[in-house]
Specification:
The protein is of the alpha+beta class. The protein contains 2 helices and 4 strands. The strands form 2 sheets. It has a two-stranded antiparallel sheet. It has a two-stranded antiparallel ribbon with strand order 3-4. The termini are far apart.
Length: 109
């Protein structure tokens, strides 16, 4: 199966509803054409505009009550290119699973 946004082959067996949303803890650098509300952005230590995080390290756009992206329709370009079941998704899931099994906490960048 091919993801229409990224053009990447994806594993159709992967489903975000059975995931711990590890991708929502990754650093998301904003591109000039991204239109994210200012209260959901921050500056990284390197001066890049990024998605802000809450006190637990989750993307600030995550709706904690419903556990979904509150700005999905206007989510950043990088989020649009991160295909569910694509190579990056599978890699992040595997790294997280491996670290969890070894008792290593996930490190936020």
């Amino acid at each position: 199966m091919i993801d229409p946004m990224s053009g990447e082959a994806v594993d159709p067996r992967v489903d975000c509803t059975r995931c711990e949303a590890v991708c929502c803890r990754l650093t998301v650098v904003l591109m000039p054409d991204d239109h994210v509300p200012d209260h959901l952005t921050a500056r990284s230590e390197h001066g890049l505009e990024v998605m802000a995080r809450d006190e637990d390290g989750w993307c600030a756009a995550i709706d904690p009550l419903h556990l979904h992206c509150s700005i999905y329709a206007q989510r950043p370009t990088i989020c649009r290119m991160f295909a569910m079941g694509g190579s990056q998704c599978l890699e992040v899931r595997e790294t997280y699973r491996d670290q969890r099994l070894r008792g290593i906490p996930i490190v936020l960048e």
